[in-house]
Amino acid sequence: MAAIRFGNLSVFTARSSLKDKTWLSMSVKHTCAMKAGQGTNGQIRSKVLAIDSMNPHVKKIEYAVRGPIVIRAGELEKELQQGEKKKFNSILRANIGDCHATGQEPLIFLRQVLALCLYPQLMQDSSFPEDAKQRASRFLSACGGNSIGAYSDSAGVSVVREDIAKYISERDGIPADPENIYLGTGASEGIRNVLKLMMTSLEGNERAGVMIPIPQYPLYTATLSEYNAYPINYYLDESSNWSLSVEELKRSMTEARPHCKPKAICVINPGNPTGQVLTRKNIEDIIKFAHEENLFILADEVYQHNVYAEGSEFHSFKKVMMEMGSPYSEMELASFMSTSKGYMGECGLRGGYVELVNLDPDVIVQFRKALSAKLCCAVTGQAAMNVIVNPPKPGEPSYELFEQQKNTVLNQLKEKGKMMSDMFNSIDGITCNPVQGAMYAFPKIDIPKKAVEAAQAKGIAADALYCFNLLEETGMCVVPGSGFGQREGTWHFRTTILPPVQQMKEMLSKFGDFHSKFMDTYS
Amino acid sequence: MAAIRFGNLSVFTARSSLKDKTWLSMSVKHTCAMKAGQGTNGQIRSKVLAIDSMNPHVKKIEYAVRGPIVIRAGELEKELQQGEKKKFNSILRANIGDCHATGQEPLIFLRQVLALCLYPQLMQDSSFPEDAKQRASRFLSACGGNSIGAYSDSAGVSVVREDIAKYISERDGIPADPENIYLGTGASEGIRNVLKLMMTSLEGNERAGVMIPIPQYPLYTATLSEYNAYPINYYLDESSNWSLSVEELKRSMTEARPHCKPKAICVINPGNPTGQVLTRKNIEDIIKFAHEENLFILADEVYQHNVYAEGSEFHSFKKVMMEMGSPYSEMELASFMSTSKGYMGECGLRGGYVELVNLDPDVIVQFRKALSAKLCCAVTGQAAMNVIVNPPKPGEPSYELFEQQKNTVLNQLKEKGKMMSDMFNSIDGITCNPVQGAMYAFPKIDIPKKAVEAAQAKGIAADALYCFNLLEETGMCVVPGSGFGQREGTWHFRTTILPPVQQMKEMLSKFGDFHSKFMDTYS
């Protein structure tokens, strides 16, 4: 059996029901080989670009949220569509925070504004409310030729940047400047663009180092791999609800120092995949630590609307930093936001922004220049972001419906988060911290020694074995903890809390049965 | 006077009417300094990220299409809005192929489909034609949860990939496979993603080398800078209508070989900024050369609909390569397309795709994995691309209007291209090749020695001096040839052929006056 490796880490490379070929090599054959005169006997003429000659940093990228288990889920889905009989009737995609894909209804007001921007003839349509028309008119007036089809400034459409600054100012009670706001393709692109600034091609203790939480959202390790930066892993404390201790930050920094030049710390709040919400005190401690160590702060705050737990509250890094006063208020910070999460869940529109605070003006020139070579991000995503930062106000015709849709989504997420952690905690051998925020549960599973050995024999991680089995037995697609990082010897998986309540109830009941069976098989 | 440099090349760094500060440092101060406790006396506390500690490869990026002259144009525009008196009443942005910004009307059918995708409630609206509804329904049926707000597969929405393959098959009479198609944020992202595969962090004669045309579209040099690859410049022959000679390819290769490991050749056809359309014979020669030298071919074919000259015809590299048979038909090729150009000009929607032909299956696995870490490109841009590759057919309700809009745009571009080159050629000291295709004229200007010296004294290129002056005197914003590359001692600028006919006539008349005055000043 050929092992398929996605880089240096062996995360999960095959499935249990493997026959003579791996599923991945099968699917790859399907996609691209035997297309242009290549023999089917394995003889492949030498390529300009081969695995040994290609960019080695790209090879090191890992991205489990769309990894082999997810590819396998797609294959199963196709087989079901073709009428194959399975133990389940459909795939439950709990691997990715893809709100609309799991049935969440789009916000009507947001879609009305977008439809008006794309097809301004609808301005004459009396069924569209005035506030939607007003938003669309204002947006279009700032577009080249009044068209959403014109390129925007590379930083984004001016009125969107203005409205974002106003949103941030009102959120924090701290001024924000439109000139510090840069729109992007989701939050991901902004994160990549900012991290890219830090990177050098230097090696040894001059190699750029970036602190990242473990468990983390794998965009961070993927980007660090691509730019050959050194990941400084700091572990979140599962035993105290995934909190972040300064002692652990110091430990990781001490260990990393001989291997790199530490430049930045990434914090995800509310946490992905871990769902914790940082306290204000915790944020202050992180800022003090970053100041002592002279680190640039990257605050991934895309779940700022997704806070559910009693007593939990979202505090932006910027607000806390500014309120701490000098010298903290002068630190360099990048804060990221997205249209993909929150209550809107408009992932496909790929809206996002970064606010850059206190950056060196010369660096900003370089940042803008690098942005300009990409022209601009999708102007449709910018229009969506505009709605989120400038939603209907009390007294406007769409206010009540908008608030109702928003609260329904957030209340359901709160309910489902609790349902999920309660259920997991009711099963022997599984423990799950409460979902304080974001969109995920990250339960710990006690995997029996025999299963760990069986996974090792297949060259995959034990939680990958667990998740592949879960998929094949129940149709549930979740992501193994090894895709996010975890303390050695512990095993987890990440599941979204997005499926509709009824579907989630069925899923959780099937899950219990699967777990018992798995434990029996390997006990 | 502080010189602002955008990297290693000094392209244009100041304007003629400079006082005690450069315009660029002024605008940067405006954007980001003095925001958080920094003194105004020039004392800036040390930053984590400074010009000396940031990514050196990002510093080397150049992108003139949105460079200092364009930033200055934005400033002038604001000043006009604030009521300042100038020698002109508006800025004519001929610097960028931004069709809608210069008044081109969006295709009604395309916008109807998009409005339907975003706001499916419009499916009940009888004013929307059935073919638009059918396209939208088909597209949404392939989206997660039937919503354009769901993430797509990282490669793109399945039906779009299928329709693109069908479009390519029909265009070339050669089969295309949907599995080889990857959607992206415009063509730019695809170009970056494919070039990225070639790069290594190796130096000396192991450093990756990529052949690019000079003059070129600066995305190529920008990307090569960012990934520290070696640009192998081959010069297009201005004296024979910017044709591409194999002798020149060989010369550039011979010169480059000690400095890099050549991996790929980029060809832009129809040409940007040069507007030539390659003959089939020329393409065959390039393919043979690439085969001899074992090069991967990147064919930038985003202007495939923009061919105007009698006797010129678009031939895709894929078609020619396949028709040449083995071994050429087995070569590795990436062909790029966009929704931004053509007759649709939907730049802001950022739709694009790449077709990858004959790639090593292992490399494809890596390519897909790297894509997946970016999640997906904007699904709205994918929907726009779907319309372009599957437009209304004869007999469908929108067919006639669509064809009429399409032909109007293409006929006007043809007319304006001719008008522009004729006018330039009527001026003493300016010569301009015919605009066979694409959207630009790239005239050569004989700049007097005194002007070259004046520019040198300011630390800028002579054509940058010319273009800054043109902007300040007439409001016309064009891009100096030095931003695209040109033979040493020659000077050019690129202007789009997009402005409406009447506006273009006025512009060309003002241009003649400016040119005479410039020549007088420096003769």
UniProtKB/TrEMBL annotation, chains A, B:
Q: Which UniProt keywords apply?
A: Aminotransferase, Pyridoxal phosphate, Transferase
Question: Which domain of life does this protein belong to?
Answer: Eukaryota
Q: Which cofactors must be present for this protein to function?
A: pyridoxal 5'-phosphate
Q: From the UniProt record, give the pathway where this protein acts.
A: Amino-acid degradation; L-alanine degradation via transaminase pathway; pyruvate from L-alanine: step 1/1
Q: Which residues are in the Aminotransferase class I/classII large domain?
A: 128-509
| A single MF term (Gene Ontology) | pyridoxal phosphate binding
Keyword presence, GTP-binding: no
User: If you read the UniProt record, what top EC class would you report for this enzyme, in one word?
Assistant: transferase
Under which name does UniProt file this protein? Answer: alanine transaminase
Instruction: Provide the species name.
Output: Elysia crispata (lettuce slug)
